[in-house]
Amino acid sequence: MGTGAKLGGMSGLCHFEEIVGHAPWPWQTRLYGAFAEGNVPVAVDIPTGLGKTSCVLLFLLAQFDNPALPRRIVYVVDRRAIVDQTARAIREWIGRIAERPALAGAFDAASAFPSDAPVQLGILRGGLADDGQWRVDPARPAVVVGTVDMIGSRILFSGYGDGRSRRPMHAGLLGHDSIIMLDEAHLSPAMEELLRSIERMQNHAGFKSMTLSATGTNAGSVFGLGREDEADPGVRIRLHASKRPSFHRVKTAAAGIRRICEAASAHRTGSIAVFARTVANAEKIATELTRMIGEGGSERVALLTGTLRGEERAELADGPVWNRFDPRRKRGPDRPPVYLVMTSAGEVGVDLDADHAVMDLTTLDSMTQRLGRVNRAGLAKSRVSIVFTEREASEAEKAPESHAGKLVAARARTLRVLKQLPDLSPTALRNIDRREFARCMVPSAIPARLHREAAMAYAATSADLQLPDVSIHLRGVSDPDPPDSYLVWRREVPDLVRLGSDAAREVIAFFRPGAGEVARVPARFARNLIETVLERQEGSGLPMIAVGPGGNVTALVLEDASGIPLLNHAVVFLPTTAGGLHSSGLPSLSAQEEVRDVCDDDGRIRYFDGSRGAETMDGGEESVLPAWLDRAIVLRVPLHDADEEEAEERHLVFALRRADPALQTGESDLTWLGVSPQTIDEHCSLVGEAVRRIGEALALPETDALEAAGRWHDRGKERRVWQRAAGVPAGGPLLAKSNRGRFRSGLLDGYRHEFGSLAEADREIPAGFPGRDLILHLIASHHGWARPGFSDTRQWDPDLPSALNRRLAVDAEHRFARLQAEYGLWRLAWLEALLKAADAYVSARTGV
């Protein structure tokens, strides 16, 4: 938490039971004590079923006793589907904190701004679906949950989907005043090495990292269970939970699917977890189980994969099948069995507790995770059926040295080890010799160590350097796992493509994909899907929009597969008529029905407006439009071509119920839109006050410099060229923000208002003024430039002589180098993020 005020005068652990529902286990008490003393273990190794995710809550509560702890907890998982489940549990904890005035008040007292939530929750799952609330008040404790790709790319100044402005902001907020908890680190050795490298570069100042595991594969100095845990009745029953195995040998993979279905359907009651290695096999199993059950089968079989679209995944998590796997459920009389068929998306971090399980064979680390979803509380006598083929049983030593061959060999060794165990309880699995356990896994890609010179190059986010893809630091060298793409279906895609990439960029920035809209798929699947749609449409062309990993937006009509852009880590917008998504929410090459558009919600809506009146995207009448529209922040996109003077004046209208903090920290001209009009003087004064509040809440020595930067940061908007582009009439009040209107960026001819602000401050702030370097850099960098500088002469101030502009540009580059050496890469980016947060807060409200 930096050096801010202490959260409370009592031990935070005394609130644990009322939040979680049970007293802390002995290991939780010990770990809390370590956190409160500022000691973060390098690794924590706790079996599944003993609340490993509670490390997040323990750290939050430890902030009561130690105000020097980092404010942000970043929880990283290697499965996108797990992000939502982990976030769901943390959201429940935050809700219980909010219900307790003493707790909520303590978190509020440490913060700069009021909030509905005592702790902010951020979710970075990919596909641009981040609401940005966690960024608005960097002094307020926050938990950010995300995947290796989304967190790792951002902490390295290269966030997938981020543009120029957000790259340093995210790097600063995630890489300073934060602790990163990497769950199941054995799956992500490259990410672990990256975190250790960043920790070394910062000398542990303001940044800590910790790995979590439930496999028992960690060696060396690890925080784990002690004798007092073994003696605790609640812990002991979980460690020795009965899980009786049976092994089923089949000749072929097809026979294996049949045998899995037979073993699953043999259960007459309970909740049955069914695991399969591939999405295709999981689909086949779910279909066959539904057929075997007959009437009512679709209500008793559910499918969970990492590729499910968010909307359907949320519906699944709220459904009757999922509720039968809730660890907190009340166990009543016997009921007909329900089945949850899962891929690896159900292995790590999902809060599920099955009565029994049926599964195919995989490596020992994955088998351990699967078994951790069965009989977690130790209250039942569970049966576990493991189905394997003859080939999987016999090829431990003769498999080829390819990655696929190593997988086959590791599975065969896993089978031999499991057959030798008396049962499959956590204790039996943790007693496996570590060297033998390692032989039953597949070595991950070789981690790439991050050197300071490379980190400095990544930090130069406005230089457009050609650098190695950050994936080598997230996934390692020669990573066998394919990169992902994120699919979104919207009705307006053909209209936006016709209007061009600029219109598409504006709309996507204004109406970012919501969590329910996004389906994560391998990039090669996304390409195959597009090719399939093209073939199906027989040359009619496919409108699509792609947002690349660097935030670049491409809108085009594809005529054939040769025009498909690179889709690695891209967000792909398709028309709903393109198909590609089953009604279940599962992406599929064979799905041809129109996809349900789930973009609109209670906080935002799209509609057409023009001489034909207003209608929603569904074709409804004006009466269905919400009453809050007259107070909304609106983006109006004309649907006719500008040169068609006789064309009907019709607009596609996008309306937000309230200001979006993510919009205010972007790099597009939509940052012009705020909740109400503000003059430049009003806005700069309010931002100065807001950033001072952040600095004081964090007890920063740079608070005065931050406030000065806030009071100067938008002075460059006074230039007539900027006011004309904003549509402000000559002689009117000079505006910094408006809640209406379109910004005509073409009229700027490249001018950057922050360069004009830099010129004003450089002239007015005398040499030797305390913090002058930092003030000037914060002003120049608040939209992502000045890292290192302004190399494009079109960005310079049109009202100043060329020689003065050139001197300001050169000084900006030298200043950036000096400040990085003084503050370090991530702390300088964090200081920039504080000013951006204040700007976003003020723009989203009428005042502070």
Describe this structure in words.
There is one protein chain. 38% of the residues lie in helices and 14% in strands. The chain contains 33 helices and 23 strands. α12 (253-265) crosses α13, α27 (680-697) runs antiparallel to α28 and α32 crosses α33 (825-843). The relative contact order is 0.10.
**Side-by-side strand order of the widest sheet:** 1-6-5-2-4-3
Distance N to C terminus:
23 Å
Q: What is the typical, i.e. mean, pLDDT?
A: 88
| Share of helical residues | 25-40%
Coarse morphology: globular
Characterize the main sheet. Answer: 6 strands, parallel
The rounded Rg comes to: 28 Å
Class inferred from helices and paired strands: alpha/beta
Number of helices: 33
Structure summary, number of beta strands: 23
Q: What share of residues are in beta strands?
A: 5-15%
Extract low-pLDDT stretches.
1-10
SSE map:
Layout: H1 16-20, H2 26-36, E1 43-45, H3 55-62, E2 72-77, H4 80-98, H5 101-109, E3 120-124, H6 133-136, E4 142-147, H7 148-155, H8 166-175, E5 178-183, H9 189-202, E6 207-213, H10 227-231, H11 233-239, E7 243-250, H12 253-265, E8 271-275, H13 279-293, E9 301-304, H14 310-317, H15 320-323, E10 338-342, E11 356-360, H16 364-371, E12 382-389, H17 390-394, H18 403-419, H19 426-430, H20 434-439, H21 452-459, H22 471-474, E13 484-489, H23 493-499, H24 501-510, E14 519-522, H25 523-537, E15 542-547, E16 553-558, E17 571-574, E18 604-610, E19 615-616, E20 633-638, E21 650-656, H26 661-664, E22 678-679, H27 680-697, H28 703-712, H29 720-725, E23 735-737, H30 753-764, H31 772-781, H32 802-823, H33 825-843
Parallel strand pairs: 1-6, 2-4, 2-5, 3-4, 5-6, 7-12, 8-10, 8-11, 9-10, 11-12, 13-17
Antiparallel strand pairs: 13-14, 15-16, 15-17, 18-19, 18-21, 20-21, 22-23
